[in-house]
Amino acid sequence: MTENRTQPRFATTTEAGVVIVRCAGDLDLATTTRLRDALLGPFRGDATAVVADLTETTYCDSTVFSVLVESYREAVALDIPYAIAAARIAVARPLAILGLDSVLPLYTGVAEARAAVTGDPSVRIS
């Protein structure tokens, strides 16, 4: 049987000091180093806030959750606003099952996550 996997893709953009790290495709142990570099890199730069965009992540395993917790801890330690956009069931449901949805700053979309880290009241967070 051929396994249908979506290649992982990482991209970083910066808008007014807010770094948005897009993590798409299947993320697992094999991509952990790249994911960690992508999510922790902005904290070593001049980011005023960081959004981890996992809205296009199609699969993730427990190593991904470890990196999300690690990046959140880094944000807290450096007092840099941080949010995770994770609407897909592949990410949101396991986070809820593990109870991480009550610990990590999760939002359903990038706009909501960005509003949360910038304090922008023009975007309604449901």
Architecture overview:
The protein has helices at residues 32-44, 62-78, 89-97, 110-118, and strands spanning 9-15, 18-27, 49-53, 57-60, 82-85, 106-107. Strands 1, 2, 3, 4, 5 and 6 form a six-stranded mixed sheet that branches. It has one domain (9-118): Transcription Regulator spoIIAA (2-Layer Sandwich). The protein is α/β, with parallel strands linked by helices and 126 residues long. It has four helices and six strands; from the N terminus they run E-E-H-E-E-H-E-H-E-H. It comes from Amycolatopsis camponoti. GO terms for molecular function: anti-sigma factor antagonist activity. Residues 8-117 form the STAS domain.
SSE topology sketch:
Blueprint (H helix, E strand, L loop, with lengths): L8 E7 L2 E10 L4 H13 L4 E5 L3 E4 L1 H17 L3 E4 L3 H9 L8 E2 L2 H9 L8
Parallel strand pairs: 2-3, 2-4, 3-5, 5-6
Antiparallel strand pairs: 1-2
